[in-house]
Structure formats: structure tokens, C-alpha cells
Amino acid sequence: MNAVAQGKTAAIISYLTPIGTVIALILNNEKKNPFAAFHVRQALGLFLTQFALGYLVSSLDSWTATKTFYAVLFIFWLIGFSGAVQGVERKMPLLGDVYQKLFKSIP
């Protein structure tokens, strides 16, 4: 069985919720699958971006800005989740490389 097939479950779980990301991180800590680690880093970065910028964008008191922000985040989530399901390492637009570098210590 190859690395993608072995890490696919953890990769998919990582996108389900922030708790799913933690669960996938724990699952992958023992096996250290590179495919699962890639998606854990992407999902973690996406959820942290949502928390960090979500409050700021919401405080602008603009429905347009808030809706646009969350629509973009949802599209990024779809890109990552569909990559995990398809067995592809697909980076998030704009921030995917940053997430990989920032969380490179995640095995």
C-alpha cells in the first residue's frame, strides 16, 4: 500500500473540523505519513487563518467583506478537502506555501 492510500483517512479527517485536524495530527504522529502530514499542515493553516482573520473581518461591520471572506475560505477548504479525497497534494491558493513552511515541524 502506498503513502497516499495509507494517509488518506487522516488527510480527510484533518479538514472536517479544527478538532478533526488535531485528531489527524495524533493519528499521523505514530505513522508519520507524508501525504497526511501535508494535508494536516494545510488544514491547520486554514483553520488558524479563519480564527485569526475572521474576528478582524467581522469587526469591520460589513456584510460584504464578511461574506466574501468566508466564501473564499470555503473555496480554499473545498480545494484542500477535494485534494485529500482524490489523493492529491493540492496547496491552498496564496497561503499554501506559507502553511507548509510555517508547520514544517509537523511530521
Give the SSE layout.
Layout lengths: L2 H12 L3 H14 L2 H25 L4 H24 L9 H7 L5
Helix pairs in contact: 1-2, 1-3, 2-3, 3-4, 3-5
Labels describing this entry:
single chain; mainly alpha
On the 0 to 100 scale, the average pLDDT is: 93
- Work out the oligomeric state of the chains in this entry: single chain
Strand content: under 5%
Q: How many structural domains can be distinguished in the coordinates? A: 1
Q: Overall 3D geometry?
A: elongated
In short:
This protein is mainly α and 107 residues long. It is 77% helix and 0% strand.
Describe the protein's architecture and organization.
- This protein has 107 residues and is mainly alpha-helical.
- It has one domain (3-102).
- It contains five helices and no strands.
- The longest helix has 25 residues, at 34-58.
- It is elongated, with a radius of gyration of 14 Å.
